[in-house]
């Protein structure tokens, strides 16, 4: 594996190897010098709390140098092209570039133009992919339920604009999940299921959640839709919000995931977000371990 741009073409064995390594790092810590002398650059063109911080921590915990590219102070704000920025940073001795961008395909574009010794990691591009989120969600689910084949999984919210939904579906399908339901009002369902292997769609959340073992809740991606598309918040919550009444329709130990940032009272009620079935903070903790595993996989050649 040279870059991590999408989970689309990763097989079960590769995903399992990454998750096992992340689990190992969580349980035993990581060799502090695994990436010593290596440089990881985080380049974020969209806001981020969890993803950026956890990549920075992941790099540091493996002993890498981390440079956080401050876009507001950089020359891209003076109109320097992204490729000129890339080549400038490469000349300083760069091993990995972690990039988030609002345009689909921008990390792949940078990967095509990067020096052959630079690994590119997609930290979320437009509506296309968020591979490390897909991996950390799969790891979180697997910690309680490794029997993916028998799981009923519901992903609910703005599926159409969600790179998380795409990467989650791809990871879970590769790991064996066969009952994945994408639930949303029609305007937020994807136009095709091409990027959602093995998934079915549903508009009635009460029906879709019945007996579910896992529910992944998603934020409405307001920044990726026209204002007119944005639904009334109270109406949305009534039909697609996860509250305790609705959660009671799911299986008894149903795990509740959300990639964050959460909008309390819109897609998820506070008592569910903070309740005993919530895995939201476990996802955050797993995020650091998964990003360590990914950086290690890309930067340390197999012995
Ligand atoms: C997600 C993202 O940016 O795609 N958040 C994250 O990475 N933790 C989902 C979102 O922004 O709603």
Question: What tags apply to this protein structure?
Answer:
single chain, 303 residues, Rossmann fold, 2 domains, 5-stranded parallel sheet, 4-stranded parallel sheet, globular, binds N-carbamoyl-L-aspartate
Structural write-up:
The protein is α/β, with parallel strands linked by helices. The chain has two domains: 12-129 and 284-299, Rossmann fold (3-Layer(aba) Sandwich); 131-280, 3-Layer(aba) Sandwich (Rossmann fold), CATH 3.40.50.1370. It is 38% helix and 15% strand. The protein contains eleven helices and nine strands. It has helices at 12-28, 50-61, 82-91, 106-113, 131-144, 163-174, 205-209, 233-240, 244-247, 270-273, 280-299; strands at 39-44, 65-68, 96-101, 119-125, 152-156, 179-183, 199-202, 214-217, 255-257. Helix 2 links the parallel strand 1 (39-44) and strand 2.
Secondary structure layout:
Blueprint: H1 12-28, E1 39-44, H2 50-61, E2 65-68, H3 82-91, E3 96-101, H4 106-113, E4 119-125, H5 131-144, E5 152-156, H6 163-174, E6 179-183, E7 199-202, H7 205-209, E8 214-217, H8 233-240, H9 244-247, E9 255-257, H10 270-273, H11 280-299
Parallel strand pairs: 1-2, 1-3, 3-4, 5-6, 5-8, 6-7, 8-9
The chain binds N-carbamoyl-L-aspartate (NCD).
Question: What does this entry show, briefly?
Answer:
This protein is α/β, with parallel strands linked by helices. It has helices spanning 12-28, 50-61, 82-91, 106-113, 131-144, 163-174, 205-209, 233-240, 244-247, 270-273, 280-299, and strands at 39-44, 65-68, 96-101, 119-125, 152-156, 179-183, 199-202, 214-217, 255-257.
């Amino acid at each position: 594996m040279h870059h991590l741009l999408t989970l689309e073409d990763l097989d079960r064995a590769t995903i399992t190897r990454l998750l096992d390594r992340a689990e190992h790092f969580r349980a035993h810590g990581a060799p502090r010098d695994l990436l010593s002398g290596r440089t990881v650059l985080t380049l974020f063109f969209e806001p981020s709390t969890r993803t950026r911080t956890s990549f920075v921590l992941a790099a540091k915990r493996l002993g890498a140098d981390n440079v956080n590219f401050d876009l507001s102070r950089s020359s891209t704000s003076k109109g320097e092209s992204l490729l000129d920025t890339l080549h400038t940073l490469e000349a300083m001795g760069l091993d990995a570039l972690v990039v988030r961008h609002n345009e689909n395909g921008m990390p792949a574009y940078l990967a095509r133009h990067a020096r052959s010794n630079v690994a590119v990691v997609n930290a979320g591009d437009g509506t296309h992919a968020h591979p490390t989120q897909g991996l950390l969600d799969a790891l979180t689910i697997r910690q309680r339920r490794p029997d993916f084949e028998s799981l009923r999984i519901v992903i609910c919210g703005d599926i159409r604009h969600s790179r998380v939904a795409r990467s989650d579906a791809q990871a879970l399908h590769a790991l064996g999940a066969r009952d994945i339901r994408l639930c949303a009002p029609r305007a937020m369902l994807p136009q095709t299921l091409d990027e959602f292997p093995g998934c079915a769609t549903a508009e009635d959340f009460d029906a879709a959640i019945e007996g579910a073992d896992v529910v992944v809740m998603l934020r409405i991606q307001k920044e990726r839709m026209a204002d007119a598309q944005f639904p009334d918040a109270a109406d949305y919550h009534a039909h697609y919000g996860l509250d305790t009444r609705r959660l009671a329709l799911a299986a008894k130990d149903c795990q509740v995931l959300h990639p964050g940032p959460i909008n309390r009272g819109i897609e998820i009620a506070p008592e569910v977000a903070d309740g005993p079935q919530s895995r939201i903070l476990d996802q955050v903790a797993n995020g650091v371990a998964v990003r360590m595993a990914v950086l290690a996989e890309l930067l340390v050649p197999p012995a």
